[in-house]
């Protein structure tokens, strides 16, 4: 069996990290155009650094929840039996890694990474960034959060398309389906006649495209679903 998972902010909500589009979510407090675009970084880099510094600091106060752990355990069990498991996440937190997930693609980048605006050199960085951080490699650019902003191309698109082509089952967990290209993965899976499942607190924008939808908390529904898959292996 070959499973492809897509996760969004909802899977980390029960760990204590805010989602984006809920009432009182991150984009309620910070207008997205002032934070998550290259233009916003050019106009007010200090504000953008402060936003991602707060998110990076919050990471240190949270731990993986049962949904992250169940997916990591399922990957281990499935690959031990010769199956394949790919996890694509829109999340920039590191909770999947900390739960033990191995094959993971961060399509929107990572909080614990910074990137040069000039040479694109990336490096692990876990403390606070600021406007005056020059690139130590090329000495021309400044370091920016290693996040894919609106108007930029997500990472790993070729790998994700290949995984969509070869998977048997596509499962979307904890995402509103509001942001493309991730929101369109279910349509790609559907056109390739893949089985599709959505697990979310409420129907996502693309809910009708899934073969099956399970509504509720990821921390409860994901472990249940993983147990069902494990029993069938
Ligand atoms: P959203 O905030 O848009 O959606 C989160 C989804 O998770 C919603 O549909 C919630 O109903 C659901 N949810 C909340 N708590 C849940 C729980 N305990 N269990 C299951 N589901 C739950 O977040 P994303 O869809 O991840 O991009 O947003 C996609 C992208 O938009 C993000 O990666 C980010 C944002 O702008 C960038 O910053 C580039």
Oligomer: single chain
Q: Tally the helices: what do you get?
A: 9
What is the highest CATH level, the class? Answer: Alpha Beta
Which CATH-level-2 architecture?
3-Layer(aba) Sandwich
Number of domains: 1
**Would you list the SSEs in sequence order as H and E?**
EHHHHHEHEEEEHEHEEH
Number of strands: 9
Low-confidence parts = none
Bound molecules: 2'-O-acetyl adenosine-5-diphosphoribose
Distance between the termini: 9 Å
- What does the main sheet amount to? 6 strands, parallel
Mean pLDDT: 97
Which outline best applies?
globular
Q: Strand order within the widest sheet?
A: 3-2-1-7-8-9
What percentage of the residues does DSSP assign to strands (E)?
15-25%
Here the CATH topology equals Rossmann fold
> Structural class per helix/strand content?
alpha/beta
Helix content: 25-40%
Describe this structure in words.
The protein has 233 residues and is an alpha/beta fold. The protein has one domain (2-232): TPP-binding domain (Rossmann fold). The chain contains nine helices and nine strands. It has helices at residues 10-13, 26-29, 38-43, 45-59, 66-80, 95-99, 157-166, 185-191, 218-232, and strands at residues 2-7, 84-89, 104-106, 109-116, 122-124, 143-147, 169-173, 195-200, 212-215. It has a six-stranded parallel β-sheet, with helices on both faces. A three-stranded antiparallel β-sheet has the order 5-4-6, with helices on one face. The chain starts with a strand and ends with a helix. The model has no long low-confidence stretch (mean pLDDT 97).
